[in-house]
Amino acid sequence: MTGRARLLAVLRPDGPLPDPAPARGAGRGAGRDGGRGRVPTATAVAVLAVLLVLAAGLALTTGSVHVPWSVTWRILAHRVGGTAWVPDPDWSRADDLIIADTRLPRVLLAGLVGAALTVAGMVLQAVVRNPLAGPGVIGVSAGAATGAVVVMRFGLLGAGALTLNVAAFAGALLTLAVVLVIARSGGRITVLRLILGGVAVGSVLSALTSLLVLTAPSPTLASQVLFWTLGGFGAARWDVLVVPAVVLGAGVVVLVSRARDLDLLLAGDESAGALGLDVHRFRQAMFVVVAVLVGVTVAVSGVIGFVGLMLPHVVRFLVGSGHRRGLPVAVLVGALFTVLADLVARTVVIPEELPGGIVTALVGGPFFVWLLRRDGRREGAR
Hints:
By secondary structure, the protein is mainly alpha-helical. It has 15 helices and 2 strands. The protein has helices spanning 3-10, 41-61, 69-80, 93-127, 140-153, 161-183, 191-214, 221-230, 242-257, 259-265, 269-274, 279-301, 307-319, 323-347, 356-381, and strands spanning 184-185, 188-189. The chain has a two-stranded antiparallel sheet with strand order 1-2. A hairpin with a 2-residue loop joins strand 1 (184-185) and strand 2. Helix 3 (69-80) packs across helix 4 and helix 4 packs parallel to helix 9. The radius of gyration is 21 Å and the shape is globular. The relative contact order is 0.18.
């Protein structure tokens, strides 16, 4: 099979990522966005945007305190206009605070985290050429959480949230490097070694986190660590949104500008190198981008599992594997999923609240099992 034919094959809308065997002799059109999805990109973006707005509106009005749609939109319009709150017969000061200062930042944070994790997962699966790769499965999220816990344990929060973000990023990057070293065999990254390496490293990091908690002089650290372990968006505030929003925006811009190079990796390292891509340096740069995205999300929301593994498959099902089309769709798919997951977490046992990571795990766990069984059947059929 020629390089061009191989690229078109791996970019088909419902196909898995290719086996990590190098391809030979890519053709001229290999770097283009090959393979069309089941849904036109513009249609997918428009529909997902509408669904996201509806989901956000539902999340704003629903909770332990119900606020009608009409009141919710009036409160939002009131705040956008910059008008200070004044007594109003239609809503109270409590309604104003619930919508504008509690639920709206939470919805926005959930959307940012879901978008960042989905983008990170999509890039990671392309870079390692493995559909089973994900920030949670290969231990990157656990590494980010451990980095944040180390800073909290030893009281190193000199720069506040910035220190936490840097520590989470460093933990994610170091964990990713270790797992990739473990997974590489004979110059190739194998599926089995990647998953087992991620599980092993994640287990060690979990034990290290537990050790830090047990030896901590502060009894409040245990509850904080529980937040990092289970994940959630209850700590959302307006000032917390700035860093993840900036990182997500910058990351998507950088990744879309390198979409052709990400597509080239799907055809194999030899083909990508023949077309002028410095594969080693580009792969390292992409690992740094993934670590930044995951580290920032863990720093603000804890570990939200399976989002980065599961949703890239949804994106490829919708619009194909081309990253120029897929990355913008990944932002919307990820945001929509986590907004709905957080809504379920807040409302399923009112007035109690479940951690958002529990909801995503309950959905993502069965999906991962199905993915393993599907790949097993395909390997058995070869």
